[in-house]
Amino acid sequence: MPDTFSFGIDPLTCHAWNHDHSQLALSPNNHEVHVYKWSDGKWKLSDVLAEHVQRVTGIDWAPKSNRIVTCGVDRNAYVWTLQPDGKWKPALVILRINRAATCVKWSPLETKFAVGSGARLISVCYFEQENDWWVSKHIKKPIRSTVTCIDWHPNNILLACGSSDFKARVFSAYIKEVDEKPNATSWGSKMPFGNLMAEFSNGSGGWVHGISFSASGEKVAWVGHDSSISVVNAADGSKLTTLKTDSLPFVTLTWIKENNIVVAGYDCSPAVFSYDGENVVLIARLDDSETKQQQGSKFSAMKHFRSLDNRATVESNDTTLETVHQNTVTQVTIYAGTKANCTKCSTSGIDGQLVIWDLRSLENSGSNSA
Amino acid sequence: MSKNTRNTAFRKVDVDQYGEEVYEEDQTADEGATGPSDAEVQSMLAKGRNGDALQYVLTNAPLTSKNQGVKDKAAQTVLKVLMSLKANEIEGSLKGLDQAKQDTLMKYIYRGFENPSEGSSAQLLVWHDKLFAVTGVGSIVRVLTDRKRV
After folding, report:
1. What is the pLDDT of residues A124-175, one digit of tens each?
2. Is residue A298 pLDDT above 60, yes or no?
3. Distance CA B83, CA B124 (A)
4. How far apart are CA A229 and CA A245, in angstroms?
5. Is A227–B141 a contact, with Cβ atoms under 8 angstroms apart?
6. Which residues of B touch A201 (CB under 8 A)?
7. In chain A, which residue's Cα lies nearest the Cα of B98?
């Protein structure tokens, strides 16, 4: 059974975990970032980071250096460092963008971070020691519309980005001040900053909502607004495989094993898909709504009349969904484990809930049915 | 005052085209796509090969053409085929369609709703119901997002 936590009625725009998931940072659809600590079996609000003046659109928590980076509609990003007295101190990062920032991610080595924005460019920021500030460099060409999602390759150099110009791209974000010269990868060998390593079209339309590199970096997967899931395998000549699903579009995804991804979106229910080199196939829906329906059919008559009685109405206007999430899931993140082997993942959505799903039970039930 | 203050032609100049932020569609027009031949379709329908007619019009749908006239003509042909199938034949004809054709058919069903004629909407609703049972909401989402319109 998944663990569900409700943080009020406001949507959760984004969330991020610290290294041992004892702390959680999230934004309740406003300009603040709330930091919660786990104590006595519940989440206690430990800090409110209020430096942004407009809605916060992305949060990422670096596990090793324990820094939080946030970005918002106010075209700014802040890097928050924990002070000895327990307070978070913000450092403004000048992104030099003239539109809202949409997403932010720390690089794997936490030496830099990338911010996608509505200004049709990605700001890659690194810390310059001599001036004690964060400097940003822009990747512009050939992005032609808002950057909606980004993800780093494990080599700390390559960056995948999805955009509302219906394309998914892989760029090099090599910064000579902080990076070693990278070895050649399946995506190419020459990696100067801003170099477009690969570009893929999302079928015949549909914004790219979420993108993710696999644990090895050999594969990249994305989800588009045409209800499709696409995977490119660079090790296999950049072969593109797409599955057009029969559900509402997905907006977020992450790899949980080298060949499995978990996706979630407008159908309010996370699902696991698998890629075997040829096809993308559905393995399981995490909501397990089948067992719920079995239980539901026994009690639903009583539930139905009870709800009628409560509201003193003649008709039932019950809008509760069968799924755990009651509205769109906007983010799925790894909670325990890594992209190579994730044991638990967390989802947050517009219903203000944060749910932690156990993926190990999925494996057991999968092998039983096989 | 000079004489040409009455000249308001400048108001019709599209200044936005000169901005650097203009988004241009990928130019992948296929001038060769002419859509299904009406004569073929007529002969198939006359012979009673309704399922084949459906396959034919969906395979030859002018999705990449930029010519609106070609698209309109194709849409009318498809509508004719959809109207000519009887309600109990619809399910059978849907079985032979692969996913791409299913998505194209859903596009034509919605196109048909746009220009209703006598009794067309009722028949189209039957088509919609049967096709939806096979494809789910995914194909409807693709009707809305696909850049290649019918």
Report:
1. 999 999 999 999 999 998 999 999 999 999 999 999 999 999 999 999 999 9
2. no
3. 8
4. 8
5. yes
6. 26
7. A244
CB pairs under 8 A between A and B: 46
**Tokens (6 digits) for A29:** 């659809």
* B99 touches A: beta carbon within 8 Å: yes
| Partner A contacted by B29 (CB < 8 A) | no
Q: Evaluate whether B114 touches B143 at the Cβ level (below 8 Å).
A: no
- Region of A280 on the Ramachandran plot (φ > 0 left; ψ -120 to 50 alpha; else beta): beta
Return the closest-CA partner of residue B92 out of B60, B57, B127.
Answer: B127
**Would you state the pLDDT for residue A307?**
67
What is the average pLDDT value for chain A, to the nearest integer? 91
Q: Which of B23, B24, B138 sits opposite A227 (nearest CB)?
A: B138
**B98–chain A Cβ distance below 8 A for any pair:** no
Burial of A267 (0-12, 13-18, 19+ CB in 10 A): buried
- Using a CB-CB cut-off of 8 Å, the residues of chain A touching B139 are 246
The helix or strand, by DSSP H or E, that contains position A301, with its residue range, turns out to be helix A289-311
Helix (H, G, I), strand (E, B) or coil at A343: strand
Is residue A90 within 8 A of residue A98, CB to CB? The reply is no
Residue of A nearest to B149 (CA): A204
Asked if A246's CB is within 8 angstroms of B146's CB, the reply is no
Asked if B63 and B150 count as a contact pair (C-beta separation under 8 A), the reply is: yes
A296: Cα within 13 Å, side-chain hemisphere: 11
Which string of b and e fits A215-253 if b means at least 16 CB within 10 Å? bbbbbbbbbbbbbbbbbbbbeeeeeebbbbbbbbbbbbb
Question: Which of these ranges, A211-215, A253-257, A303-307, has the smallest mean pLDDT?
Answer: A303-307
Helix axes B50-59, B99-114, angle to 10 degrees: 90
Q: Check if A142 contacts B (Cβ < 8 Å).
A: no
The percent helix, strand, coil of chain A (3-state, each to 5) is: 10, 50, 45
Distance (Å, whole) CA A286 – CA A322: 12
A144 to chain B, any CB pair closer than 8 A? The answer is yes
| Residues forming a β-bridge with A244 | A228
Give tens-digit pLDDT for B22-32: 677 766 666 66
Nearest-angstrom CA–CA distance, A69 and B76: 55
